[in-house]
Design a protein that fits this description.
single chain; 280 residues; five-stranded parallel β-sheet; two-stranded antiparallel sheet; 7 strands; Sulfotransfer_4; P-loop_NTPase; P-loop containing nucleoside triphosphate hydrolase protein
């Protein structure tokens, strides 16, 4: 049964459920894990999530699930990252992923793809989809002009007063999904990262039911792979590069925030000067 759109909002990240405040630590698996989508960000993962929801795979875990739907999940993902990459705490396995993802029939995008080997081991019967772009250059340009540009501005050591001011105002993310990836050195390593990642996923998924999929192909290959009837509606298209830029220039509105913060700093400075002069 397809997702009831009345209970979901169409956002720039795709179809998003209303925000909840669920502590999943004691949750259990309630639906089977059917599909692991292991393509990198900016390969159409938001569109794929919307498509899978349309096909009745309820739910599909995505970065949207943390940012838009249940922010408490960030605590568990931080535990998982700390255990895998820092050696802090117990590594996540089937039990831990069932608690975090037990309501999902599929996963896509970060943060879950950072645990591709663990998820493949935990769910041996799940099919695997690798989303790809036309080539490495197309993907590189997309990431360079969206995620890397924004992440670098918000997370890199500030080089300007504007950057420092914005970083001081905006809340810090609960965990850094890119800390253990080449994104920090993306201009030099990005293209190779894309190629290496895709080859690694193919190797890890060897022997599994596997689909390499470009969302430009539409419903046909996806529905055939999943053995479901093809919808009569158009294949969803969400969170492309233009939408990403518009989203971060309106909702986050970094440029407006920069302007406001700069004026605020100037106003406070003027006020301080006025107070100082009044005391003279």
């Amino acid at each position: 049964m397809a997702l009831d759109r009345q209970n979901a909002n169409v956002t720039n990240f795709g179809l998003a459920r209303p925000r909840t405040n669920i502590d999943r630590r004691s949750c259990k698996r309630i639906v089977p894990m059917k599909v692991l989508c292991l393509g990198l960000c900016r390969t159409g993962t938001s569109s794929l999530r919307a498509a899978l929801l349309e096909l009745g795979l309820d739910d599909v875990y995505h970065m949207c699930s943390v940012l838009e739907e249940n922010p408490l999940d960030a605590k568990l993902w931080k535990e998982a990252f700390d255990a895998k990459f820092e050696g802090i705490g117990k590594p996540y396995g089937r039990d831990e992923f069932d608690a975090l993802l037990g309501h999902c029939m599929a996963t896509a995008d970060f943060p879950s793809i950072s645990f591709a080997p663990e998820l493949l081991e935990a769910y041996p019967d799940a099919k695997v989809i690798l989303t790809v772009r036309d080539n490495a250059d197309v993907w590189y340009d997309s990431v360079l002009n969206t995620i890397w540009k924004l992440s670098n501005f918000l997370c890199a050591p500030p080089r300007t007063l504007t950057q420092r001011t914005v970083q001081a105002i905006l809340p810090k993310p609960p965990f850094n999904i890119f800390k253990y990836s080449p994104l920090g050195n993306f201009p030099e390593e990005g293209r190779q990262w894309y190629s290496d990642w895709n080859e690694e996923v193919k190797a890890l998924a060897k022997g599994r039911e596997f689909l390499e999929f470009n969302v430009k192909q539409g419903w046909g290959p996806l529905c055939e792979f999943l053995e479901v009837e093809q919808p009569k509606t158009a294949f969803p298209r969400v969170n492309d590069s233009n939408v990403f830029k518009e989203f971060h220039n309106t909702r986050l509105d970094v440029e407006r925030l920069v302007g406001i913060s700069t004026k605020l700093v100037a106003a406070l400075a003027a006020l301080g000067l006025a107070v100082w002069l009044a005391k003279k």
